[in-house]
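The passage that follows is intended for readers who have already worked through the single-chain material. We present the inputs for a multi-component assembly, then the predicted structure in tokenized form, and finally a short commentary. You are encouraged to pause after the input and sketch how you expect the pieces to fit together before reading on.
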Amino acid sequence: ETGVTQSPTHLIKTRGQQVTLRCSSQSGHNTVSWYQQALGQGPQFIFQYYREEENGRGNFPPRFSGLQFPNYSSELNVNALELDDSALYLCASSLRGTSNEQFFGPGTRLTVL
Amino acid sequence: QKEVEQDPGPLSVPEGAIVSLNCTYSNSAFQYFMWYRQYSRKGPELLMYTYSSGNKEDGRFTAQVDKSSKYISLFIRDSQPSDSATYLCAMSTSTGGGNKLTFGTGTQLKVEL
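Having made your guess, compare it with the prediction:
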């Protein structure tokens, strides 16, 4: 069984740029959720994807967007980067309809200068 | 007021001690309760998953949920230096599908030799 993987591991961008983060879900899982974790804080829910559609969104602006692909992998896109976007971005996969257990990947650390 | 409150610590204990970690919450709709362990600069690892009130034991770990008090606990017996990490509580509501997790800020634990 393959766990959740994310790429890249680290990323440095400048203010105003755009970034794409990628996630491959755990084998057999059909739902992907994205979280933002600022230093010293708990993860904050960004949005969730199921069957290639957004299925719930947290308190994040529209410049945060995502995609889910037929193989259940997912992308998180952030436009017009701001300094406060610097954080660890976590992807979690789960199997909708059976449990609420979400399994996290190692995260992508984004630094915005 | 945050939906989930968690003492950030740090909490320092000697090896072999019993550790008690706690969270309180305000949303009575929370039905599913989880504890995650997060090592520095890594993704959260699911430790315990419980539904509604009661106790659940897994090895050295025991999770307790008291919905009447809106209070959950994680106990670690015979603590080891390898248990040194940040422990995050997380909760979700029962909405019939994939759910977002609401996290506490995490408690930093250090187990000393």
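Commentary: Chain A has a mean pLDDT of 93. Chain A touches chain B through 32 residues (CB under 8 Å). How closely did your sketch match?
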